[in-house]
Amino acid sequence: MYFENAMEKEFYYRLQSQTVDWLRFPLIVLVMLIHVDHYSLMSLNASHAAYGIYFFFSQILSRIAVPTFFLFSGYFFFFVKNSADGFTPAVYKQKLRSRIKTLLIPYLFWNLLMLVLKIAAAKGVNGEILSQIKGFPFPPAIQFWYICDLMIFALVSPVLYVLIRKFKSYFVFLLGLLWLSDSGFWADNSLFFFCLGAYFSVTNKNMVEQVRKLKFWPVIAFALLLIADTAVNIAPYKSVHTASNNTYLHCLCIFAGVVSVLYLTSLMIERRRIAANPVLKSSLFFLFAAHPPVIVYAFTRPLIKFVPDNSLGFLIMYVFPVVACTAFLTGLFTLMKKKCPAFLSFICGGRI
To answer: What's the sign of the alpha-carbon dihedral 133, 137, 141, 145?
Structure first.
């Protein structure tokens, strides 16, 4: 019996690792869909259906991406495979030291680079740039708010660890209620999913194994919630940036989506339908760090001069910059890995 349990544990451990590895790339693509140039798109005269396609993918479906990343981050931050003592002070110090390389250095580099680019574009320091500098640690490279949150969670992780060890799922459930309540707390979304991942790690539970116990029900719930969430939010699609007409519905849709992608991806990996691509896997942080200005200034703004002012032009403007940006940055990453691997490793926190 022990041998069978050990084999099952190892099976789910490998399956979870492969699931996370595969999911990271499509999740980054979803993040890129969120960061398309909304204002350029809205300047085109497209049909209701075309705007609806944009809204569904960028403001409903794509919103599962960042919470899933926080779930993974929470799990792996507290994961200590070879330590019987768990999250000890020594482990905490080692985790913080490693985050200097993986989080702090890339955070400083990419934000300083973005500041330099903005100063160059403005031909000097203007009021907007000054406000961004004064707003530190909230980043000029806007997508790095995610890294900022992770660094704060890393610093307070001993407190989170004690609360999870003492109150277990009750603490995470309370954070979930805080998130659902739309309290205005700056990190309610990120903290809930980070601590949910941490809960699985601290209590020695496998995320994929727990999700698979739910069978296909979360997928059915996600499909129904996608329809409902889209239906109640689609009317003001040109006047709002995110789905917000029904916070509870939108949050439930996100939660069901996170569970569903874990379930479906693990199922397809187990049946050997999909496998992570090594090149795409290694380039993920580079795509995350560099994509917003490339999408907007290298592809969207130049392209708008050539597309027709109709639904077809709208959809081209929506899809092409994301595809082109992904291909360009993946190619640039591959080139830099050959020509300047040490520098690339430095700016990507060792993720090459």
So the answer is: negative
